[in-house]
Known about the structure:
Strands 1, 2, 3, 4, 5, 6 and 7 form a seven-stranded mixed sheet that branches. This protein is of the alpha+beta class. It is globular, with a radius of gyration of 25 Å. It is built from five helices and 15 strands. 26% of the residues lie in helices and 42% in strands. It has helices spanning 2-22, 49-56, 73-86, 176-198, 274-282, and strands at residues 31-40, 46-48, 90-93, 108-127, 133-151, 157-159, 162-170, 202-208, 211-212, 215-216, 218-221, 234-243, 246-262, 265-272, 287-291.
Amino acid sequence: MKKFFVAAVALLYCTLTMMAQDSQPDRNRTYRITLGNVQYAHHNEKMSTGDAIGKVLTGVLTGKVEGQATKYEEDVKNAIVKGLSSAYRFRYNDGLKELADIVTEGNLIVNAVITNIQAKSDSRTWRDKDDKLQISTTYTGIVEVMLTFKDARTNEVIANPTISGSGMGSSSFSDADKAIRDAIGRMSRRIAEWLNKYRPLEANLIEGSTAKKDKQKEVYIDLGSSEGAFAGLRMGVYIVKNIAGHEAKSQIGRLKIEAVEGDDISRCKVQSGGKDIKAALDAGENLKVISID
Length: 293
């Protein structure tokens, strides 16, 4: 009887453990993403990633500033690829020849339409105290791309955001070229930001660390090196409640990871909401943390 009881307890433990694991099987899973077709809106033609970038920029500069558009070929290509591969939970798959490798649910294919690249100048003139004519010119670069994200398995369109970037520089130390390159760089970062919002890193706040009076100063979360945690990552803190079968979240503070201390644990500094976080911990609330960078 005793052996049966021990075996039953062991079986129950294993079952509960498996249920706990299955309750969040995809938490912080890594997705693969592939760049499909690239199209320049004014050319009305589709091109594969391999041969597109050299063509999409022909005649692409508009506005008051002119230049050799083809010299931005590598900048645009690298900006799109860097943006797709810089997000926390995505790995860029280079080339359509391996498309079959990513055709599983959740992995993504993205098609891009470049809708705008332009450089504009704005000049201001005045006379100084010696009555000499002075000219100050500011250059503004604008880059816009429309992305269509599709599920690699179902071909379902997930989202269709327009990502833009802009860059400015004074003529005393810059020119139109720098403004355009700055804009391309900003666009790249915004692609990564969009993906980070689409699939943020998630964790649970598991224990309070240091506190001062009624404010929490440091906490521990169950996110570590195995799921991509890194020092400096900023995360929001949310009280989570289940209402009629739906998850309701209410943000009460912000954290920044100070140190990754293992595969599944990190120590965080409380940046805001220390009083509410401590009160929630003391009350035994279910607290979730979600990346916000």
